[in-house]
Amino acid sequence: MKSYKIRAEKIETRIQQLAQYTDEPDCLSRLFGTKAFMDCRDTIELWMKEAGLQTYIDNIGNVRGKLLSKNMNAKTLVIASHFDTILHAGNYDGVLGILAGLSLLEKLVADNIQLPFHIELIAFGDEEGVRFDSSYSGSKVITGNFNTDLLEKKDSIGITLNEVLKNMNYESSKIPQDAIPAEKWMGYFEIHIEQGPVLYKNNIAAGIVTQIVGQKKINIEFSGVAGNAGAVPMKSRTDALCAAAEFIVGIERLAAAKKSNIVATVGKLNVQHPASNVIPSKVVCSLDIRSSSKKKLSKAYEDFNELCEEICFNRKVYFEWKLIQETDPVICDDRLNKFLKRSIKEVNLDVIEMESGALHDAVAISKVAPVAMLFVRCYKGISYNPLEKVELKDIATVLQISDNFLQQLIESSKNIFISAM
């Protein structure tokens, strides 16, 4: 176990180093295409090279390191996570999975393991989608499902994604060439902190993800009539902000009343041309709806739309409802999870299976390949927060589980190859 502790300490040191690459001086915020983003990208690629991987950066900014089988016709196992962050982030989300994956490959290289399949370690450049309000850009490129319309999407100051790519010397026209063909995929594996309290409450280092929730992401624009705050009587007002406020509280009440696996969040609210003495005329807000049931997700979407329509009709406020992103619930692969269960039992841990309410690149990858995720215990389940913390002993345990997992995949693939001869 001593070697696992040493590997865990190396990962922890690297996590803290990557946390220094930030857009903000007093907290970790690393958005796609910034200087901090590029510094982090270059450091990850350097570490991949030092590990003996064949590296390159693709045309959406993913850092990719390959460990090749001697069988050049073999399929590819992708191990991945992301290195972009939300605003005011924690240090472990995303990068722990990249660096743990790198540690797994470093051990394979050190042990001179002959692989029956290729392994590609990928550090996705844009999973959170904060800058351009569109998640999974990195993993969509890998799967060949990137929508080129996104290249014209603008950030908050009017810069398009395509302009950012040009500034980083990427060629957006070559993005289709960066995909791994569907027939070349063997599977996908991601190590990630649990962004919830299940493992912490059960005092267990790691757990298996069985399902990832589906999501619908909406932007709503409320349009009323501006007026002088002192001159327009209360009953004569068409206040866009009051309509938005009633909608937000209504969403919370309606979602809670459903008593089912529906969660709904309004995380962004923008009052346009705000002034303390002016009745707000235009307000834009976000709405994030999630559920592990596709049917319940669709029903909630319709109910929330009807709520918005009713509120705006009563207040004589016009609204525009725009669905900007949707994903179905994802079932993780049973075969890969069986290997994970055995691997967990080999380190004498209880097997905990759980649903992920957070979203991951595995959602995009699931369209072309079987996916598996291993969750790591996070302090009190705190995530998306500077208080995010993972203990060294848990990192060490997850490395041991994942080494076992890869060894089982290797042995299984060798047996399949031999039996096919």
Would you kindly provide a written description of the structure presented here, covering whatever features stand out?
The chain has 421 residues and is of the alpha+beta class. The protein has two domains: 2-213 and 329-420, Aminopeptidase (3-Layer(aba) Sandwich); 214-327, 2-Layer Sandwich (Alpha-Beta Plaits), CATH 3.30.70.360. 37% of the residues lie in helices and 22% in strands. It is built from eleven helices and 16 strands. The protein has helices at 2-18, 35-50, 95-110, 137-143, 161-167, 198-202, 240-257, 294-315, 334-346, 362-365, 392-420; strands spanning 54-57, 63-67, 76-82, 118-124, 185-193, 206-212, 214-223, 227-228, 262-265, 269-271, 278-279, 282-291, 318-327, 330-331, 353-356, 371-376. Strands 1, 2, 3, 4, 5, 6, 14, 15 and 16 form a nine-stranded mixed beta sheet that branches. Strands 7, 9, 10, 12 and 13 form a five-stranded antiparallel beta sheet that branches. A two-stranded antiparallel sheet has the order 8-11. Helix 1 (2-18) packs across helix 11 (392-420) and helix 7 runs antiparallel to helix 8. It is globular, with a radius of gyration of 23 Å. The chain starts with a helix and ends with a helix.
